[in-house]
């Protein structure tokens, strides 16, 4: 539940604007906050009175590290943290969903299938923690958030890295008595098996509505945890055996997380999580999601100075300051959904920017960091980022460039942009091998540009076919479209680069003879491979989604499209994003429409322009693109609702074929006057760098944006 900020809560923490309080605990306060780009996050801030305690700072650092280990699938993904700040803080995704404690208290015990799915998901999450030698030590119903996608584990405030010096005093029982392990209750080491014990107790609570050792005073609970048998009354008979093993007093008798997940999944625990949740829980998830989009409560006003006590009054009672602090508190309800655009009115109402007074000084465009003389290809000219430097097509070669100096470092004799790809570490090439008789995938040496030995030889496919294409390389797998040597049929291939062999193939339509790259582009999202085909002269994109495991086609369809076809796909775990007459999100699950933006909007005087929305960019849960001739528009990636639109732009013709580049401070977009930097806080352009460039590439790790003109490429700082 949301509550108002109190008067002495900060306006911002790091780059995040605070909107409301989510709750508080012994170590800190959790706030709902928003980035300049519109993404909603939860920010936990250590109490000021504790900031000088070095042990608590160390614990706060470990909490951030543990949350990073469990990641966004099983927990609240960490976006940012500063444990060394005056008041340490941690920013995570904001989870939409109630804690398990609220679910059971409001709606009663869950059914067997829901408990199995819940337990299998939590066992997987704990397994991920334990493989990184981290134990949670405080798994309980209030620290498990129930979302439509699955359970998430939160609050790692007393987590412990195996092998590290303990942050609590020897012999002290730290945790929640009702869900402690016997060894934890005795003040002994709580290892991975202790988390399994706690998970067993949590699942007993979910299945029966009561804890395994009852209630009462902490001392009584600790005694029963150590010596009494668990109460499994009300637990479905099919679950009694496996949960009883979890609650064994001897850690050696408990199942591991992998064994437990398999045992629970064997009874239907791997069904989609939303399918096994009661309707009442789904309605509560939807209600909490809707609540986040409401106007936040106004900040509490400062209390008036306290008058001195009147004569004869004994004791001051509770001060107004204390009452306000109590009113602003509450129970922590979680941290997590990656969504943006909450309460966009905060960015536009008077005084929202904290400004006032004299006008800000004009911002000057930055100077070039370096310039590399090279000829930009007509298409496929993106700068490739690798661990060793940059690679970019330059005339008839692929050139290596030092990202710090802009000096050329190597050249590889490749002119076809559709035959190379990078995984962010290396550059891979699709090559002829054995005098054109076979196709091979190899790497390019970052020192001299020479081709390495083949990582995989595809002897069934014609190496001399000019239209063979390397779509992408992800996690040691290369995805290739190639023509078979025998019969001439075309296939989509997955190639295992570690074992040097083909994993699967799936038939595809032969490319047209009027081949204009990029005819094909591809990207992987989770367990899906997304392929986009754009034939010359046809204003449609042909989209298909294949299973990464076996290549089976899940769905395919054609999408009307104007302008230059996309050189890279913009997607996340949920949607593929495309800009044309509208900005749209296409569901990766089935190709359905996730949302459409712009169907009834005034996009300015763009008469004769068939493409009204430009190629999109995705950053921190927000989709950015150009809208008509009005400027950059920012749209929430989950809902398709507008976050903001660029202010005050006029007299520019926007380049809609080039996606914007999004930094922490500015979003960069090309138009007929040059490269425009739009301030994410004020939503207005602050400078323009004159250029006729048609390619932008972002390098967030090095803090660069690379701008490609016809005969030169230069670097600017990415702010």
Task: Describe the 3D structure.
This protein is α+β, with helices and mostly antiparallel strands. Among the domains are: 100-281, Transferase(Phosphotransferase) domain 1 (Transferase(Phosphotransferase), domain 1), CATH 1.10.510; 416-567, Lipocalin (Beta Barrel). The protein has eleven helices and 43 strands. Strands 1, 2, 3, 4, 5, 6 and 11 form a seven-stranded antiparallel β-sheet that branches. Strands 12-43-42-41 form a four-stranded antiparallel β-sheet, with no helix packed on it. A four-stranded antiparallel β-sheet has the order 13-14-15-16, with no helix packed on it. A hairpin with a 5-residue loop joins strand 27 (540-547) and strand 28. Helix 1 (54-74) crosses helix 3. The chain is globular and about 80 Å long.
What is the fold named in CATH at topology level of the domain at 100-281?
A: Transferase(Phosphotransferase), domain 1
* First-to-last CA distance: 35 Å
Number of helices: 11
Main sheet makeup: 7 strands, antiparallel
Contiguous runs where pLDDT drops below 50 for at least 5 residues: 161-173, 306-359
Q: In the CATH hierarchy, what is the architecture of the domain at 100-281 at level 2?
A: Orthogonal Bundle
Mean pLDDT: 83
Helical amount: 10-25%
CA-atom Rg in angstroms: 29 Å
CATH superfamily caption of the domain at 100-281: Transferase(Phosphotransferase) domain 1
Strand percentage: 25-35%
């Amino acid at each position: 539940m949301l509550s108002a900020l109190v008067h002495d809560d900060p306006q911002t923490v790091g780059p995040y604007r605070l909107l409301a309080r989510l709750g508080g605990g012994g170590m800190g306060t959790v706030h709902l906050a928003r980035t300049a780009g519109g993404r909603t996050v939860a920010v936990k801030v250590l109490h000021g009175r504790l900031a000088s305690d070095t042990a608590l700072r160390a614990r706060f650092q470990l909490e951030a590290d543990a949350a990073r280990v469990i990641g966004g699938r099983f927990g609240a993904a960490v976006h940012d943290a500063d444990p060394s700040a005056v008041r340490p803080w941690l920013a995570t995704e904001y989870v939409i969903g109630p804690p398990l404690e609220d679910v059971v208290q409001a709606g009663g015990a869950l059914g067997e299938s829901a408990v199995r799915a819940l337990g299998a998901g939590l066992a997987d999450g704990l397994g991920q923690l334990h493989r990184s030698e981290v134990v949670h030590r405080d798994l309980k119903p209030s620290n498990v958030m129930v979302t439509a996608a699955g359970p998430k584990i939160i609050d790692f405030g007393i987590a412990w890295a195996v092998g590290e010096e303990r942050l609590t005093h020897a012999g002290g029982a730290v945790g929640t008595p009702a869900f402690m392990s016997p060894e934890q209750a005795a003040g002994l080491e709580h290892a991975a098996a202790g988390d399994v014990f706690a998970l067993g107790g949590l699942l007993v609570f979910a299945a029966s509505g009561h804890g395994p050792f009852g209630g009462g005073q902490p001392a009584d609970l600790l005694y029963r945890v150590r010596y009494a048998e668990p109460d499994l009354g009300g637990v479905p008979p099919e679950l009694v055996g496996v949960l009883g093993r979890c609650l064994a007093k001897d850690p050696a008798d408990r199942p591991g997380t992998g064994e437990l997940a398999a045992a629970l999944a064997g009874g239907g625990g791997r069904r989609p999580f939303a399918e096994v949740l009661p309707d009442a829980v789904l309605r509560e998830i939807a209600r909490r999601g809707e609540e986040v989009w409401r106007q936040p409560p106004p900040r509490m006003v400062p209390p008036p100075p306290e008058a001195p006590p009147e004569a004869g009054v004994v004791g001051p009672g509770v001060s107004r300051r204390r009452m306000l602090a109590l009113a602003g508190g509450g129970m922590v309800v979680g941290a997590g959904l990656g969504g943006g655009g909450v309460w966009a009115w905060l960015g536009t109402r008077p005084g929202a920017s904290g400004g006032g007074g004299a006008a800000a000084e004009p911002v000057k465009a930055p100077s070039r960091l370096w310039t590399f003389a090279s000829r930009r290809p007509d298409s496929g000219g993106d700068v490739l980022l690798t661990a060793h430097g940059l690679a970019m097509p330059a005339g008839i070669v692929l050139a290596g460039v030092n990202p710090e100096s802009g000096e050329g470092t190597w050249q590889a004799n490749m002119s076809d942009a559709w035959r190379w790809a990078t995984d962010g570490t290396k550059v891979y090439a699709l090559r002829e091998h054995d005098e054109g008789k076979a196709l091979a995938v190899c790497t390019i040496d970052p020192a001299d540009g020479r081709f390495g030995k083949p990582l995989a030889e595809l002897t069934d496919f014609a190496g001399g076919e000019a239209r063979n294409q390397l779509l992408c390389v992800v996690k040691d797998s290369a995805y290739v479209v190639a023509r078979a040597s025998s019969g001439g049929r075309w296939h989509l291939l997955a190639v295992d680069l570690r074992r040097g062999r083909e994993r699967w193939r799936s038939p595809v339509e032969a490319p047209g003879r009027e081949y204009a790259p990029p005819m094909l582009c591809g990207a992987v999202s989770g367990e899906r491979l997304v392929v986009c085909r754009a034939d010359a002269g046809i204003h449609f994109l042909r989209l298909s989604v294949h299973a990464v495991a076996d290549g089976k086609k899940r769905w395919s369809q054609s999408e009307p499209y104007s302008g230059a076809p996309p050189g890279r796909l913009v997607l996340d775990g949920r949607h593929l994003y495309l800009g044309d007459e509208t900005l749209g999100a296409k569901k990766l699950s089935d190709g359905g429409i996730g949302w459409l933006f712009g169907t009834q909007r005034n996009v300015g005087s763009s008469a004769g322009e068939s493409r009204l929305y430009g190629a999109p960019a995705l950053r921190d849960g927000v989709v950015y693109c150009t809208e008509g001739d009005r400027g950059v528009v920012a749209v929430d990636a989950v809902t398709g609702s507008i976050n903001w639109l660029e202010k005050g732009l006029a007299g520019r013709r926007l380049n809609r074929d080039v996606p914007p580049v999004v930094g922490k401070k500015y979003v960069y977009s090309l138009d007929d006057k040059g490269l425009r930097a739009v301030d994410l806080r004020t939503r207005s352009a602050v400078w323009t760098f004159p250029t006729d460039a048609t390619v932008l590439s972002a390098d967030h790790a090095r803090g660069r944006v690379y701008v490609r003109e016809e005969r030169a490429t230069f670097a600017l700082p990415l702010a």
